Amino acid sequence: MASKSMGRFVLAALLATHVMADADELLGKAMSKAFMPAGGVGTRPASPTVANVGLAVAATMPLAPEVDVLRTISELQEANKDMKMRYQRLRAQIEKMPQVEAKDAQYGFGGLAGLIASVGLAASLGAAAVSKYFGREQQASQPRTDSQISLIPQRSGAVSMTASLDAPEEKPAEPLEPLDELKQLASELNPVIGYWDPLKLAEWDFWAEGDAATIGWLRHAEIKHGRVAMAGFIGYIVSEAGIRWPFRLAADMPMSDFEGLGAAEVWDKMPQAAKWQIMLFVGFLEIWSEWNYALEADGTKHYMRGGKPGYMPSFKKNPFFPLDLYDPFKNNKNKSEEWKKDMLLRELNNGRLAMFGTLGLCAEAHTPGSVPALSGLVKEYGGEVMNPLDFGPAFY
Fold it and tell me: Rounded distance, CA 163 to CA 137, Å?
């Protein structure tokens, strides 16, 4: 009977060894498939045992594809059930042994039962640790994106797991350097010519204010002169065409006095008071656009301090002007940003063209034939185009 008991003990030991080997193989697959580091390249953990499965599974590591994870958890649960069934059958066989052998086999039975119970308990703890680990992952990864899947039902209910991958964080685009931004704007304005600055003005440091302030000043000056040139070009053409106001310009100056005069001569013949009215109004607009009080009322800054070059503040803080200079009737208020950007590019290009056009008209009037395309179309002018208020010598 002792040999029979010993044989059963050896059989039980071999069965427990076989069960542990199966558990080790399953856990090895779990560690290599489900929890391999990102990239898919790495060495398999050195023979993970059932006893330390909880720690191995709960360690921080990247998630594997959903299919591999599902398969691995299912295999662990099936192995756990199989070990429990074998343990119950073996225990039932041992309990049927005669009472005579009970004393001889007391130590062997206790050790064997303890070993098998440890195997079953460790496997149960391992499966529970896996489920608990993924349950924590579900709660901790709520801000993450991706899908939530449900696993095989267990005694405690359905186990859920969040298989989410870290979504790549989009870094905000770094602002360009002032010169790089200017070059990009030049390409948008004219892709053929691109950036062209033969005098390297954008690389100077005006008044030791830095590159951003220098480029802001240059851009504002270009936009402002372009706007004045557009108005001047239209005014020159209207005057050359003989279009006049239908009323007197002054009490003692009927419009008939301007018949047959070119645009430059019309300016010279105007009264000084009329010229000063125009100059003072333009001066007011200049001061208003530079005044921090008006800029801050619109929530913006000076163009040399990070503001927008060419920006004209609203007159809402000025009681003498009920309408704004820009968009007085708010027709562009609901326009898209793409539309506004396109209009700004067009304004810059038209302003540059108008500056060349106005200079060409003045040159042809002062020196006939200097602009062959305008020869015979512009009336000759013998005055000083660079001395608009007749303050002594011309400004050149």
Answer: 8
Q: Per this entry, what is the length of the chain?
A: 396
Query: Same domain, yes or no, for 144 and 232?
Result: no
CATH assignment of the domain containing 296: 1.10.3460
324 and 204, same structural domain? yes
Asked if residue 232 lies in contact with residue 242, where contact means CB atoms within 8 angstroms, the answer is no
Report the sign of the C-alpha dihedral through residues 93, 99, 104, 109, in that order. Answer: positive
Give the pLDDT score at 222: 97
Pair 232, 302 in one domain:
yes
Rg (CA), the chain: 45
This prediction's pTM: 0.56
| 364 neighbors 374 (Cβ within 8 angstroms) | yes
Any domain includes 331: yes
| Domain membership flag for residue 196 | yes
For the stretch 236-277, pLDDT in tens is 999 999 888 888 877 788 888 888 899 999 999 888 888 899
In the chain, which stretches have pLDDT less than 70?
A: 1-73, 79-80, 84, 87, 90-91, 93-173, 391-396
Distance between CA 304 and CA 299 in Å, rounded? Answer: 15
In a domain, residue 394? The reply is: no
Say yes or no: 159 and 200 in one domain.
Answer: no
Total of domains in the chain: 2
Q: Whose CA is closest to 185, among 31, 348, 7?
A: 348
Return all residues near 335 (Cβ < 8 A) that are at least 6 apart.
none
Distance separating alpha carbons of residues 4 and 297, to the nearest angstrom = 101
Instruction: Report CA 264 to chain centroid distance, whole Å.
Output: 52
Rounded to whole angstroms, the Cα distance separating 108 from 120 reads 18
Is residue 12 exposed (0-12), middle (13-18) or buried (19+ Cβ within 10 Å)?
buried
CA–CA dist 385, 396 (Å, integer): 10
157-203: per-residue pLDDT in tens?
Answer: 444 444 444 555 666 667 789 999 999 999 999 999 999 999 999 99
Q: Alpha helix (H) ranges present in the chain?
A: 2-29, 53-58, 66-95, 100-104, 106-140, 178-189, 211-240, 263-269, 272-290, 292-297, 337-366
In-domain check, residue 213: yes
- CA 6, CA 9: separation in Å to the nearest integer? 5
Q: What is the span of the domain harbouring residue 131?
A: 2-163
Residues 235 and 146 in one domain: no
